[in-house]
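Quick note —
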Amino acid sequence: MSETITPFRIDVPQSDLDDLHRRLSAVRWPSELPDVGWSRGVPLAYLKELAEYWRTSYDWRKYEAALNDIPQFTTEIDGQRVHFMHVSSPHPDALPLILTHGWPGSVVEFLKVIGPLTDPAAHGGDPADAFHLVIPSLPGFGFSGPTRETRWNSGRIARAWARLMSRLGYDRYGAQGGDLGALVTPELGRAATEQVVGVHVNAASFGFIPFGDVSDEERATLTDAERARLGRAKEFMDDQSGYFKISATRPQTVAYALTDSPVGQLAWLVEKFKEWSFPAADLPEAAIDRDLLLTDVMLYWLTGTAGSVANLYYENMHANTWHSEPATTPTGVAVFAHDLPIRRYAEYGNNITHWSEFDRGGHFAALEAPDLLTADIRAFFRPLR
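Predicted structure written out below.
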């Protein structure tokens, strides 16, 4: 296996863009019941308008060029191609930090925080808070996909990240992640205990929320904010977890529709951008720029990775890996307005040394509230440098 690190530039063939436009011009639209809004999924009128904007107004080449302004590379780890951004700080003594995205996100999630994290002085901050950033695409996602074999779960990804950081020459670094990244990042802290100085997560769920039902007696001891999080967790399981159950049980079946239909892929992702941003307004663009949202969708569509993305959920649900001992790596948790973590449950398996709660920002904190996320990452790692 080669350990070569190869410079990478995105260069999508024009034929792929032409094919996308052709498919967007020939959509077979479903019917819709009247006056149901978003309660049964993405409304027809909204998706028609967004798909037409995608076809006629969105400029992929503009965002391809913007992404190519960021140094990107590929390398092979454990038989899998891994794509990553690597942005060095102008401050040579900066702390290396690996950022891990989630679903339905991608490396696009971090575009607003790269500058402030690598060069805080240029963004009104203290140079002592600078980071060298490594931002990989999860195996199976975007240009790290598709995966070619089974068993790519969160633990295996964490071990791959440890090898990536070692390959880059970093023997002491921090780790941050949200959503799926909040599964991988604590695993990295376990896999590379001597190297990872601290783990910071947002949009965390498993390992940071109660496992199973909470009794009335225990519920009575929670704060109002914590009880509200339990309510959101129940709402998620009852009304918003269909994607998870399909992906975790039949990833190959859903892959056909999402790989063949750009509108299907668009609807599959944009619904969650709407439901999980804060506040969940009438349109996802109320929280996240429409062109950034479409750029994220493009990384799924152009790489044909819907199936390998779904497979990560399957692998995680079938991995049967349970830790019996609490983690020892210092762990910071940023709880944004839409997040679910409750500190007492997070402390069962994590060494919580930093806990912040915010009244704005949602699941996509790096896009919705980059100022808050940046400040919290700086504050958590400041005493760990």
